[in-house]
Write a structure and sequence with these properties.
Elements: E1 2-3, E2 7-10, H1 16-25, H2 28-34, E3 60-67, E4 73-83, E5 88-95, H3 104-119, E6 124-130, H4 134-142, E7 146-157, E8 160-170
Parallel strand pairs: 5-6
Antiparallel strand pairs: 1-2, 2-3, 3-4, 4-5, 6-8, 7-8
Helix pairs in contact: 3-4
């Protein structure tokens, strides 16, 4: 497990799947804002890659996020679009509703940076998020990400186009937090 100050990132367990499906992916609003494709329900027992991990897929590393105190599941985190030639990847996360507003997102971004830069040897990490996602913008900027641009009206979300913000962080700009 990778450890931050508040959360750990670990492999997905079978018992995580029903919780994630019910609390993250069955929520139409959250699901529509988190995905770049239209929301659709996920059938119990599905092999949907958002829930069930295929460890043979290169370029995509999903984690379950757990509280360090007690091990309670609080969300998901992903390093995706890993480009081993350019040594770059994207990061994303989704926190369960009860886990929001507790600083977990900032800690998850820090741990994903450690994984990307130290464990994987990447040069660049990137985040794309909706312009009104203040929590993700705060978490990214707290970890040193820089706003690189706005993708105007690039995301279709629940009947309207929304702007997305593109943020980037280079390995030599990153300030590692000790003891991951």
């Amino acid at each position: 497990m990778l450890r931050g100050s508040k959360v750990g990132l670990r492999a997905r367990h079978e018992e995580d799947i029903p919780v994630l499906r019910a609390e993250l992916y069955d929520d139409v609003v959250n699901g529509s804002r988190a995905e770049s494709r239209p929301w659709r329900p996920i059938t119990p027992g599905t092999k949907d890659p958002r829930l069930v991990v295929d460890d043979t897929v290169d370029g995509h590393v999903p984690f379950s996020v757990v509280e360090l105190d007690g091990g309670t599941l609080v969300g998901t985190a992903t390093l995706w679009g890993i480009d081993t030639h350019s040594r770059a990847a994207h990061i994303g996360l989704g926190l369960l509703p009860a886990a929001r507003g507790k600083g977990y997102g900032t800690d998850v971004v820090a741990v994903l940076c450690h994984y990307g830069f130290v464990v994987r040897g990447l040069h660049r990490l990137q985040i794309e998020t909706l312009a009104d996602n203040a929590a993700m913008l705060r978490a990214a900027e707290h970890n040193g990400f820089v706003r690189e641009g706005v993708l105007r009206s690039s995301a279709w979300v629940l009947g309207e186009f929304l702007d997305e913000v593109l943020l980037g962080l280079l390995a030599d700009e990153w300030k590692q937090v000790p003891a991951m």
